[in-house]
Design goal:
Mean pLDDT: 94
CATH topology: Alpha-Beta Plaits
Strand order of the largest sheet: 2-3-1-4-5
Number of domains: 1
Largest sheet: 5 strands, mixed
CATH class: Alpha Beta
CATH architecture: 2-Layer Sandwich
Helix content: 40-55%
Structural class: alpha+beta
Shape: globular
Length: 221
């Protein structure tokens, strides 16, 4: 019996324009090592740099997939990337230490997803696409991904910093103590409230968290 997984393929945008590729490679590697360590219990095969401008990983169905991807993105803000996510089986034995040479529906779907989002970006705002469930679920997932990608595309530097602080504190849901966050950031609660309101960070987190939960449930049906 083949187990089902979520495969993730990341494709760095305009990678040929990166000036210091050696420095970029070090930062890519550091970001992926951090993810592999912090989320090891939900990663079936570690995130690995594959083609120089791509990376991939394999996740168990219960993995906090969008939290993982957002942590990577916040660590690599200078190097934007697209994401293709695929669900399905893996035909070869999973190597937990490196995601190279694997095959199966999960990876095929992830590859098709990354190719789709490469060509259809909704005027440059959409960077994430999913394939692997039935058409109805796929449409729902991708509409929410496009909507939340749009929200994120409009964030200012300060709003991104605020979101990054939430991630650093392990927060990936809309309900949290604003007082605690404001104290940590050394700003007033009013200032934090204004940032959250203007950025729609709470709406973003609600949508992405509920999407994580739903996808995990559907994966286990």
């Amino acid at each position: 019996m083949n187990l089902n997984y979520f495969a993730v393929i990341g494709d760095f945008i305009d990678s040929r324009k990166i000036e210091n590729r050696d420095l970029a490679q070090v930062k890519f590697q550091h970001a992926l090592e951090k993810i592999n360590k912090d989320f090891s219990k939900t990663i079936a095969s570690k995130f690995t740099i594959t083609l120089g401008d791509e990376f991939q990983g394999l996740l168990y169905p219960e993995a906090p997939i969008f939290k993982i991807l957002d942590v990577i993105e916040m660590d690599l803000l200078a190097y934007p990337f697209r994401i293709g996510i695929g669900f399905g089986s893996v035909t070869q034995p999973v190597n937990p230490n490196i995601s190279i040479g694997a095959d199966g529906k999960a990876y095929w779907n992830a590859r098709s997803a990354i190719e789709f989002i490469h060509d259809k970006t909704d005027y440059g705002t959409s960077r994430t696409y999913f394939l692997g469930f039935d058409n109805t679920k796929n449409r729902l997932i991708n509409d929410l991904l496009a909507s939340t990608d749009l929200i994120k595309s409009k964030w200012s530097r300060i709003q991104r910093e605020t979101f990054s602080v939430l991630l650093d504190m392990g927060i990936y849901e809309e309900d949290f103590s604003q007082k605690t966050i404001a104290q940590f950031m050394r700003i007033s609660e009013v200032a934090l409230y204004k940032r959250l309101k203007a950025s729609n960070i709470k709406l973003y987190l609600r949508c992405r968290k509920n999407l994580e939960i739903s996808m995990s449930e559907w994966a286990n049906d």
